[in-house]
Amino acid sequence: MVQRVVELVQAGLAIWGLYGSQRDELDINGLFCDETKGGIFKWRQIMGMEKETLKLEVRLYSTKKS
Fold this sequence. Notes:
Layout lengths: L1 H14 L18 H13 L20
Helix pairs in contact: 1-2
């Protein structure tokens, strides 16, 4: 499910020219890579949110039963 969300973000960034270097070489793969992260930060600058802090973190939850 998370991979699909990242694919949607990558596609949205690509539409606005913020993801992928060339149109024919778009690799919308659902991986949260440096290029995806860079596109998000470019978008935030365009939207005027560059002064706000953004902390991207991944939390892993244990599914162990006590």
